[in-house]
Fold these 3 entries.
Entry 1:
Amino acid sequence: MATSLAAFKEFRKTGVVVFAHSKTDGGAFPKGVADVRTAGGNTIPMVFVTSADGSKGIEGISYATLKGDMRKAVRNLKRKLASDSRASSADSSEQVPDGLLADEQAWTNAQGKSIEAAVKAVDKKNVSFVMPNGTVVSYPLSKLSEESRAAIKALK
Amino acid sequence: MLGFFLAVGSSQAELKIPRGVFKMDQLAVAKAQATESAKPLVFVYTDPGTT
């Protein structure tokens, strides 16, 4: 039960979560779930991610993955969604909301800790992160990991 | 009839579905919300009685 509850909470950060009862709802899934059903494995709870209209499968996440490191699974899903979004709209500059340099994604500091935030502004010393709750936080570029610092500088 | 509703209440109490999580009979609403917010649908497939 703990894994299911954690899944409800963790995946709400990334998508619109639907509870599907394994005894009664297995036949009611939209078409896209069939694309990723196998990846979900044979043990419940498992997670299926589809496009907003349910027509296309995006990811199937097994119980073993959920149990192992659910937050990592959520982060991986976010990366995949961001990557898919960039790939599907490579000729569009509208994928980042107005007023932001980068949409919400994972950033890592020099200590290896990660946050999920959008980027609003960058200057020589600081980056302005927009946290998921809307709070804007200024953070020194020097405290970011090399990879995140380089990615943020590239946004300028 | 009261027994029916009590039974439903009892089975759902085994797993408290957090607010904001849709059930399969609300799938159309979930799709509309997902489309509007440009987010994917995430189905948590589970048995509330055991997992």
Entry 2:
Amino acid sequence: MTTMLEVTGLTTRYGSISALRDATLTVGSGEVVGLIGPNGAGKTTLLNTVAGLLAPATGRVTFDGSDVTTLSPEKRVTAGMALVPEHRRIFVDMTVEENLKVGSVTRSASERAADLDEMAELFPVLREKWSTAAGYLSGGEAQQLAIARGLMSRPKLLMLDEPSLGLAPVLVDVVFELLDSLRAAGRTLLVVEQNATRMLEVADRAYVLRSGEVVGEGTGDELAARDDLFATFVGDGAGGGAEPS
Amino acid sequence: MIELLQNLIDGLGRGSIYALLALGVAVVFGVMHLLNFAHGELITVGGYATFAFFSQFTGGSWWLAAPIIVVAAIVASLIIERVAFSRVRGASDFTLLLTSFGVHFVVSAIFLLYVSASVKTFPRPGWVTNTWSIGSLTIEVFDTVVIVTTLVVLAGTAWLLQRTMFGLSLRAAAADFSTAQLMGVRSDAVIRGAFALSGLLAGIAGIFWLMRAGSITPSGGIDPMLKGVLAALIGGLGSLRGAVLGGFVLGLAEVLLRSRLPDGIANLTEGVVFLLIALLFIFRPQGLITVAHAERV
């Protein structure tokens, strides 16, 4: 398996506070990797640094064989990375179709047309609301739109930040089914989730973060066997719908 | 009744120009959070370009002057972005505001030093004062041309914003800049595009502003800047529809007040307009149209 993403010794600071300290992880091509841990563990900071929204103080991000540490977020999208951000961040004043089009801004008009058709097929809920302003979507619909929008750039690596956050249990199921189908389609995913138990069911491996540091790594079974980590990731994650700090 | 109708048409004519100016202000505010107090300098630049054109070609045509004004405004807008605003991207709103004041003073000073402090005049087109009548209604040919042109330009802008990838990128960036970047929207391209569009709109507004004025001074940008910024504020900063609406409201308010206020205080129209705007902001500080803003980078 070739390495898609390699993060080495990444430290990101807000002022004098290190939200992420010396984080090292890899994601192989076709792998589904989870990032779990309590609020404030640095999971979102890690994804935002990998996506280029935050500049690291030290460390390196290598993507698909090239060093992208200093690239702008938009150039990383062109390189094949996409992040579905925390709280979805869909463009509420734009229609579902327009949101999807923005997601494909790096691609050609003909590719865009084909991908719009594909998303309409993959997400029947969105097809019904195609010309509706995204602000009128329910939480579950909005999350599906956010994920579909992320897929529109045809990313080699799709990163998702808390995709089940704030959703009703039945919709959490929908999101995890979606993750499972993306995984079955051979996509490479890096997913931040509070809902550790559910995440470990779909992930090949997961990294556990605590207080800005990577404190563990392994498959679901391996992590479950580690008593020292158990409280870290199951403690907060069981609720799934908890609000972030 | 006839007088009211007359006022409405006059107000729409005036408001059209304000709407174009305000839309330019709103487009730039959207992507950069910059309230551009140097927006009027685009008209100043257009004005001196017009002066230069007519002093080179005595008896030259406004058909040639018009595209020159538009190109001058677009180029000036892009140069100002490159020289000044690109350096303060992402800075605090206050820094951006001060920078735009700085640009205003520098551009005025350049014309003051290198051209002249005195008024420079150029011929106004003959038809500016022509009128035509329906019954007892007298309509200026100028207002008619302004209103029709503005409607065409607004329709074109709406098409651009809704049907092109540049337009979608611009709206996405205005709604949430960092998320737009995460989608691959190039920040340089979208910001420069916004300044170019802003220059285009200011240029078209400038054609009419200058046709009617027939002159330019180094501080000639202040008045159009005030109208554009005020109209954008009235409409609700960040809302493009609001900016257009604000322009028409401001134009109508000015014309209606001027014709309705008693003779003694008709000269105070501007003051009364400001008073009304202050009242509006007391009751609706967000302007006529409310926009949800995401955090900006």
Entry 3:
Amino acid sequence: MLRHLFAGTGLLLTLAGSALAQDSAQDQSSSQDSQNERFIILASTTSTEQSGLFDALLPKFKESSGIEVRVVAVGTGQAFELGRRGDADSLLVHDTAGEETFVAEGYASERRDVMYNDFVLIGPADDPAGIRDAGSAQEAFSRIAEAEAPFASRGDDSGTHRAEQRQWQEAGVEASVSWYRELGSGMGPTLNTAAGMNAYVFADRATWIAFDNRQDLELLYAGDEALFNQYGSLLLSEERHPHLKHDLAEQWHEWLLSEEGQQAIADYELKGQQLFFPNAD
Amino acid sequence: MAMPALIENALANALTLVIDLDPALRDIVVLSLRISLTAVVVASLIALPLGAALALWHFPGRGLIVVALNALMGLPPVVAGLTVYLLLSRAGPFGELGLLFTPAAMVIAQVVLVLPIIAALTRQQIEALWAEYGEQLTSFGHGRLRAIPTLLWDARFGLITVILAGFGRASAEVGAVLIVGGNIDGVTRVMTTAIALETNKGNLALALGLGIVLLTLVALVNAAAYLIGESARRRLG
């Protein structure tokens, strides 16, 4: 009986010991983090992360500043929420109207243009709605609605979803559930689903170029000025969230706008194509 | 990509990843194991005694706790993640700790997911043992408190399976660690969030390749537990 008791306690102690060993290993690495590594949390969009842009930019920024940027890639709506709650030190998103509201609400002290690319309309290669030769984005959206061709929407309050909704509004179309599918997912999952059901889909060019599971989908319409996709960097308010790493975040913000940062953005290519075009003023 | 070609590519990807010992993959694997094993150890330390106590003591409200634990076995990971996120967010009660988007936050989320499984299944195993040996144990004059380690030790082979079920849940879930960890490259990216990311990029072959690596790892952990259990059983004769 006693032997069992000892053995049982021994088992528990071993478990506890290994847990503590794990924990102290973690403590060590986290204290090393704070001593040797200066980092900020950047809330940004899935398009910038999945296109590989950050893999090209962040090492260059780290080299010149010593600051590590930890990217949490979410939809623009969720990025704003992270900023409001004080969970991110900096934001790089793409919804100019939303960004201006964010500044007006006092959550950010500054918003600057960083870079742009454009949105594109993707669809089945046989183009049942005939948008390939549409004269404008408005016309392309109207044709999809007229044909009642399946359309896969992000439906996640992201920058791309907000831009898509503006297009429907401008085309004066009331989308109907019979052909309009709100998926509530990121750009990649939405493209995967659109490929599966051979639907039209509104995407940012960067994610489309980086996307590999295209199946029967093709780029069908692009080039209208209305499809402009502007990315902006936000400097968060020191008053609202004094605990954030404002000094480091400001260095990142300034670097993005600097000649060096702008050049790094212009230099990034994927599959031989430039994905983002710097346009800081 | 046609299905057979996709699977072929996935297997090739899995093999290349393992053979090349890709350093990024190695870091991801180590982090995944560290987080899930820590979560399972922490959860076990709380859940094993808790489950045993629930089996031995009958008190008002016990039924409620038992039902709650059973129900929480089905807690959706996203809900667990969201709850832990709200607690650890700067605007939340534990925001000051600065744990959000760190591996520690991921451990906490996994403990929340694993603890009910281990506690509920432990209660059930110990209850059966107690029904069998309870009288014998109390006749030695020991209290119930002192019976707990004995019962846990006697049930150890069954409990290994219970703990492995917890480990399976921890290493397989993606919803909770994605929210509280943020899937930050090199900091909080684990196997499941890496698989989700590659799927999102449409790199289905690479995603499936990573999935094969993850399955193999989980199988190895299970095999190790099985072998330890078997050899202990043989020694007992």
